Amino acid sequence: MTTIKKYLKPFLTGIVVTLIMVIVMLKITMNFQILLFLGAFIFLVAGLINSNFKKHFLLVTLLITMIYLLVFILLVLEEIPELWYFVPIYFATTFLGLLYKNHKQKILVSLALLTITMLFMAIKVIPKDLENRLTQTRFEQLPVFSINEMSGNVIDSETLKGKIVILDFFGTWCKPCVQELKELDKIQRVFKERDDVVFYIINADLGGDTPEKFKEFIKNHEYKFKFAYDYNSEIYKLLKFQQLGLPTLLIIDKEQNIRLQHVGYNTAETNFSKYMIETINGLK
Asked: What pTM did the predictor assign?
């Protein structure tokens, strides 16, 4: 019983850390560059809180980290396995926190080296990993459908032949969708003088959205996109996006071929605008 009580503290610490990280991810930010450092700091503190242990450091580290790492593996790595290095980094910072009291100088050096490594990962590796996971090059004919513009016009997709078309399927309730829209606005401004490049933001009619909610969203923002509503998610289903979620973005060439698909959005995608601009320019 005494042994169980002894290890109860790190286990409870792990539960608290998990709750903090989940709240941050759901309510504050899903930017993986920020989460890398924030998670490392929180797990370091969790290790420091339990640094009274004199042995069984690996076991204590496991007790602190296992619940959150299990959640991270199931919810994040299931979708973006490229971010596997978050697991050893969080484990390592917890372990270093546990050892800090007895090995301060060595731990400080280790933390400095780990921080440099994380800076490199955040600046160079994470944006590239997200780009590789969320972006898919394609080459297939766009099916024919009708676009219901919020202005009242109904346009046959075939009439857009001869133009580069960016279709972004969107939800007013979808935080990544709203964040992505800011980047798409920057991209659109680059091509504002080109009549052959058209941006459509299409409400996918999911998650309780209605034309009225979409109109209110448009009214509250000053974007210059073409806006459309996908009644009953007909276009979304026609393109077989049901399993992909929102936002889902397509870049279509002048011959109505889908050339690029981007699913989801994370503010850590620092190359997003540059990559999209390069792709559009490559379709001249």
From this structure: 0.88
